[in-house]
């Protein structure tokens, strides 16, 4: 079993729940994190990883047990113990009556969501400070607040739902609509990734109890590291790529009338960036969904070809608001030039959601004709 580390809490180390979670911790020696033994899940695997990203937990030890007396020795306990009390560093969600959700979201939290609720801002602020070498990214800054909500929705909420048995769609509504899957998704989500690291039902167990626990703990640490790597990539993407793209999309959104009087064409100048989330947010703030096509260069270099991409009805939809004309679809180069009546055409995808042209003028002409079609 992993070594125990007993650490007493004094009254001075306790703070109100409204305070920053890391400030409630007495830093110095490593602390002891406790979670349950036995079959492990994605939520506590991620919860442990997230805690260990913070200086106060960087040298934390871990014990996996269901023994209440051992759990009492832990500084922080996740996903076991039947108690949610942030002031005492207890983050379980299995107890009767627990119904806490992330602000603005309907999904009941798991241990991952609870830890992210209390420590996510600190993790994000720390990452932003490293990325920008600035101290302006504090836990209460607008950037951190934006990313806290975004990363919860994009990553952590799925784990909360998985652990609490909440389906993506209402099963009754799906059944009433007579919908059925067309193919298997392979059963490979974040929860499945962690679940597959548990021992198989018929895998021989060690005869010695301590050795059996050691092997189980080693598997858990592998699971925590694996899902932690995915979480870190998610945070890095949103902090260093998605967030800077916001200013680029906003500038293009404000100038879109220069390309179409009704604001239906968005042009990303210089370099393509992740635009969908930001576009939908800007349109929501404006009160109307007007953009049909987004134009951008394939590469940020002189002479690069241009793309024309249709705006989907929603972020994850394959249905475009206004697909490129059916007559153009599946054709390329000179043949497409003749069909579209536009020089420099490169291609239009058979599904009609994207096309290309050798020049910006050609891509804009494609947008203008497609709007009129």
UniProtKB/TrEMBL annotation:
Entry-linked PANTHER family: METAL DEPENDENT HYDROLASE - RELATED, MYG1 EXONUCLEASE
Organism phylogeny: Eukaryota, Fungi, Dikarya, Ascomycota, Pezizomycotina
What are the TM regions of this chain, as residue ranges? none
The organism encoding this protein is Akanthomyces muscarius
Q: Which Pfam families match?
A: MYG1_exonuc
Superkingdom per UniProt: Eukaryota
Q: Which family does it belong to?
A: Belongs to the MYG1 family.
Protein's UniProt name: MYG1 protein
- Single GO cellular component term: cytoplasm
């Amino acid at each position: 079993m992993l070594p125990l580390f007993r650490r007493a809490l004094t009254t001075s180390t306790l703070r109100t729940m409204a305070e920053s979670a890391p400030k409630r911790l007495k830093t110095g020696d490593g602390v002891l994190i406790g979670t349950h033994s036995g079959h492990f899940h994605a939520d506590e695997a991620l919860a442990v990883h997230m805690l260990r990203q913070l200086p106060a937990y960087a040298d934390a030890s871990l014990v996996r047990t269901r023994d209440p007396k051992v759990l009492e020795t832990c500084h922080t306990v996740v996903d076991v113990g039947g108690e949610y009390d942030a002031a005492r560093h207890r983050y379980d969600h299995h107890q009767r009556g627990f119904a806490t959700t992330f602000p603005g979201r309907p999904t009941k939290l798991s241990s991952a969501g609870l830890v992210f609720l209390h420590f996510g801002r600190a993790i994000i602020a720390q990452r932003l400070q490293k990325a920008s070498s600035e101290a302006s990214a504090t836990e209460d800054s607008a950037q951190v607040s934006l990313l806290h909500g975004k990363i919860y929705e994009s990553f952590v909420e799925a784990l909360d739902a998985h652990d609490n048995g909440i389906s993506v769609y209402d099963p009754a509504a799906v059944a009433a609509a007579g919908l059925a899957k067309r193919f298997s998704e392979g059963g490979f989500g974040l929860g499945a990734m962690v679940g597959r690291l548990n021992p198989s039902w018929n895998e021989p167990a060690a005869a010695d109890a301590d050795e059996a626990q050691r092997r189980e703990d080693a598997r858990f640490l592998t699971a925590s590291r694996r899902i932690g790597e995915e979480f870190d990539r998610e945070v890095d993407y949103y902090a260093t790529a998605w967030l800077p793209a916001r200013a680029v999309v906003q500038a293009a959104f404000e100038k879109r009338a220069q390309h179409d009087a009704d604001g239906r064409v968005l042009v990303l100048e210089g370099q393509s960036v992740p635009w969908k989330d930001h576009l939908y947010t800007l349109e929501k703030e404006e009160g109307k969904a007007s953009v049909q096509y987004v134009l951008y260069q394939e590469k940020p270099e002189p002479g690069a070809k241009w793309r024309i991409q249709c705006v989907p009805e929603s972020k994850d939809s394959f249905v475009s608001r206004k697909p490129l004309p059916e007559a153009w679809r599946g054709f390329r180069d000179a043949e497409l030039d003749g069909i579209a009546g536009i020089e420099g055409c490169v291609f239009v995808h058979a599904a009609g959601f994207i096309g290309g042209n050798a020049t910006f003028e050609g891509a804009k002409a494609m947008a203008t004709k497609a709007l009129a079609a």
